[in-house]
Every structure is written in structure tokens, then in C-alpha cells.
Amino acid sequence: MGIRVRALQANHGDCVLVTHEGPHGTFNLLIDGGNAGTFKYGQQGRMKGELCKLLDELKALGQHLDLVILTHIDDDHIGGLLKAFKAPGYGQLVKSVWFNSSKVITDYFGCPEIPENDIYFPDSSPDTSVRQGKKFDELLDQLGVERGHIVLAGQEIVKGPFTFSILSPDEAQLRKLLCIWPVEKTSPDTSSDATDYSMSLEQFWADDSFESDTSIANGSSIAFMLQAGDQKMLFLGDAYDTCTVESLKQLGYSELNKLHLDVVKVSHHGSQYNTSSGFLSMVSAARYVISTNGARHGLPNKRTIARILASGDGKICFNYPKVAASMLLPNELHLYAGRLEVVSQIEFDHDDR
């Protein structure tokens, strides 16, 4: 019996599979699906991405995705899943989906639906426009996929072998989506070349202050603690640090009563605006996983790496070797290289008592 956490190479996005193998069988939880290229890429989408390979593997084993959690609306989390749901023979692998869609949010607040926020799948015919394609909710109905209710901070949900303690979003952040959702554009100042990697760890430690993320989409991100037996993990999507910290306080955790974890999937690909020293003082984790190929927004920020290194002795895990290799200056390698790892899979035993 055991748990495997696989951080797929999802380009600049997130796509994480958590597999629980126990006495009652195998339960597969998929958190996000990366961008569209995580499913297929190349000319006419002929090349299989990591998500497509994973789904082919599950099909060969006769397994399903028992639960898919789409944390929020950003393309680097939802794009690969949208492509997979539409592809023949793949959508049928999904049993249940949790996603705070526009309809779920407007229903919760008792507001009129906002049709501009509907997610559409293009029809297979080139003569059919995108706006004439099937809506996401309609396609899930056709596939017979179970949908969860709205996911909010403070909830505790049991699904299969897992207990989910929801940390984000809160009502205030979801209420901000009661509008036509803005398209967030990438600034030329946040390209992959604009990094802080030339700075030393000592410089960050000597002068550090935290500024919070302000993205409306990231503020709506689902984040949760996942527990199975004695194992506890945090999967933070792109959630606000402030919301996560407040939820952990509500659960009784603090700097004097730390939450001990096996894995933390670090928020927003290691952005300095989503991981504070205050949050890190409340947790103690064996591994901190950062998912990105470093192609967007200058992420991960080395300032985040410095904060994690200063907070304890946990390993920092990357799913792309070139990103890990960029983090340390030559004179820092002998002290800190042993704290950085490149991993695709983390495995540990669990206790079902």
C-alpha cells in the first residue's frame, strides 16, 4: 500500500497525479492539466504530451481518473484538460470533477448567469465557430461525469481514501468573479529572461519583505490539505498566501504548532508573491514541489527558494532539470545543492488505520 505523487512536466503549468493504492483498490486524483500542449502538441497536435501519455497508461491498466480538480481558470492549469475532455476516448476516463465554474459561482451567490464566462469546446468541424461548440458543463453531462458543489475554504470533504481540508478560495475572492472574467495578459517585463537568479541567497535573506499576489484568477484558486492515514500534503494551486495562512490558523496551526507535511505543492510555480516566510513558519515539510519549465513570468523566483531554504531542512523538488540548475550561484552550490532535487515522482507508504 502506498501513495505516489507525480508532478508531470506540464510546461509552465501544473498537472499533478496523486495515486492511492490501498486494500480497496486504486484511486487516482488529478490536480489540473497544464496548458493545451500538456495533452498534445506539434503540427496538428500529433505529438503526445505528458497528460496524454498518462491517460494512455491508465487506459492500459483499466483505471480511471476517480477525481479531477481544476483549481482555477488560468490556461496553464485548465488547457490540457479541456483538450483531453474533447478527445475521443479520453473524457470517458473521468468519473468526477471539482471546479468552481462560472455557473457554480453564480448559482451559489444567487446571481444571473454570465454567458461570456462559459467555457466552450470547438466542434470538430472546421466550419463551426468556437462559440457554437459544446459548453464545458454540457460535455461533462454527456460524458456522465459527476460534478461537485462549490469548493470553499473551511470545508472538509471525504472522497475515496482522501480527506480534503479546503484552504482556498474564500467567499470574498469568489465574489470577485461575479463579472465577465478578465483575460490576464503576460507583460513583457515578466518574460523568462526577467529573473532574479543573479542575486545571492544572502541578499534575499538580508532584505526580504512580502507583497501579495493580486491576480483575481489566482485568488479564486482551489487549495487544500490532502490526508490519507498519517500522510498529509498541501496542494496550493496558485492560491493567495494570505488565504492559505488564515485557513491554517482556523485549523489551529501556528509557528508554535506547525503543520507537519510530506509534500507541499508550492503555490503559483514558486512566485515570490504567493509564498511568504509567515506561511513557511507554520509548516514543516519533507518536500516542496515547484512545477514549471521556467518559460513564463520569470518563475520560480529565487526569493521563494531562499525563503524555503531558510525555513527548515526540507528538500525543494523541481520537475525540470534546467530550472533546478538555474537556482544557485557557483559559490552556493557546495552548501545548498543537496537541498535541491529533480523529481517526477514521489512515493511513500501510508497507514490506513
Write up what this structure looks like.
The chain is α/β, with parallel strands linked by helices and 353 residues long. Helices cover 26% and strands 24% of the residues. It has twelve helices and 19 strands. It has helices at residues 50-61, 75-86, 102-109, 136-143, 171-175, 201-206, 216-219, 241-250, 277-282, 302-311, 321-326, 333-336; strands spanning 2-7, 16-22, 25-31, 40-41, 47-48, 67-69, 96-98, 120-121, 134-135, 146-147, 156-159, 162-168, 223-228, 231-235, 259-265, 283-290, 315-318, 340-342, 345-348. An eight-stranded mixed β-sheet has the order 11-12-13-14-15-16-17-18. The chain is globular, with a radius of gyration of 20 Å. The protein starts with a strand and ends in a 5-residue tail after the last strand. Residues 125-131 and 186-191 have low confidence and may be disordered.
Distance between the termini: 12 Å
**Main sheet?**
8 strands, mixed
Overall helicity? 25-40%
Mean pLDDT: 91
* Parts with pLDDT < 50 across at least 5 consecutive residues: 125-131, 186-191
The value of Rg in angstroms is 20 Å
Structural class determined from secondary elements:
alpha/beta
Approximate strand percentage = 15-25%
Strand order within the widest sheet?
Answer: 11-12-13-14-15-16-17-18
Q: What is the 3D shape?
A: globular
Number of strands: 19
What's the helix count? 12
